[in-house]
Fold this sequence. Notes:
By secondary structure, the chain is an all-alpha fold. Helix content is about 80%, strand content about 0%. It starts with a helix and ends in a 5-residue tail after the last helix. The mean pLDDT is about 95.
Amino acid sequence: MTRADKIKHLGKVAIFTVVEAGAIALRLAVGGLLGRAILLVGFLIEHVISFNVRNGRALLLLRDLPGPAIILLGILEYATWDVWFYLTAKVPIYYQALAFVILFIGLILGHGVELNVVRGFPPFTRYKQRLKESLDITGIESVTGTVWLKIAAGGRGALAFVILFIGLLVEHLVSGNKRIT
């Protein structure tokens, strides 16, 4: 891959990263049912674009998309983050710890499926192996989300969004570079 190709690919990865980061940030900013709807739609769009980028397709191409698997991924990620948002709104520290654990578990379950789906494998092919292969990206996303929320809660929204974007971009790049068979 030439340098120009690498830059072009990075730009495409940045697009679906902005979609995901924006959906997460808007869920916090907007709240309520609208915030939840934005989060769900954002995750669905992110997974469509991610699949297409990984497979060299036009970003928003829907033809021949593994629709049920994309919907499964979007709903699983949405549910995980939504429960996390609910628990992080609680004050006692044990809710914060529980929120992190739930975020990590939900994300690793989704990442195990996602590693297969974006590569054209059935969702649960070698699933136990995929879970092991997902530890790093799940850790990156879980820590990023937790740090983002703490900074955003401190009133530094722009800085928080930059951190969220960079953390998710790193997670997406690491995930995309995995050699899965």
